[in-house]
Amino acid sequence: MWFELIKQEPHCIHLNPMNYLGIITLACFFLCITTSQAQSNRDLLREGMDVLDDGSDKRDYDQILKARALLEPLTDDDSLAIWAHYYAAAASSAMANMIREGVKDAGNRIRLDHINNSIEHLEAAVAIDPTFADAWMLLSSSYVHKISVRPLRAVGLSRKYRRARDLAFELEPNNPRVKLMKGIINYNLPGFVGGDKAIAEAEFDEALKIFEEENIIHPFQPSWGHDEVHARLGVVYMDRGDLQEARDAFEQALEINPQYGWVAEELLITLEELEAKASGN
Q1: Domains present along the chain, CATH in parentheses
Q2: Of 24, 99, 260, 276, which residue is 20 to 30 A from 50 by alpha carbon distance?
Q3: How far apart are alpha carbons 255 and 257 in whole angstroms?
């Protein structure tokens, strides 16, 4: 509006030069406020992502909860909403997994709340951008997770899972996180519902090759997974008794991310116990 006024002749709007200066000053003031707020929200998003990363590394439930609290209000910012939804969903998914694994002592009701929260955020993210393959793949895993809590809804959820998984793969077949998540699902699903450990290992191997060449430019684009694919391969090797290969994989994961708590505080300890048994100690 202020720009339209400046374009008009002075006699039409009865403003002297000082009026023009006032309008321009006021416009600049509001522009600065808007720019500052946008920058502030970007900083908050980055902070939420960092807190989520750190909490995930430490397997700190309360820190991940704090990350989600930082991220969820940013879903109201149209320019950042898709990222805020995605990372808030990742936080909810991480907390649900911690409850499932016994890292956090909480019941299935809270676990289901986190799963539903993750699904809601991811469905919002793909509504904003239906080509967001990372979100589709994370959404597929959330549907699978919900089946474990609500088995009576398995038929409908399985249909949603397959649709989300297939869309992710169609959109970005060479996305390493898509391959990683597909591998995780294949490895953990029972064979009678479509799981296949051999296929999962091949997907992990393919994901690893792509991760080694990946170059993320956008500051908010998902970039996680390189350390995890080494960890997942280590689990594959450990489960079949290839203990030295498992150790090598875990050490590679820690080389990428020295703070990786799942590997350092759980997987390596399990591996050391298996090594001790194998050596007769």
Answers
A1: 46-173 (1.25.40.10), 174-213+224-281 (1.25.40.10)
A2: 99
A3: 6
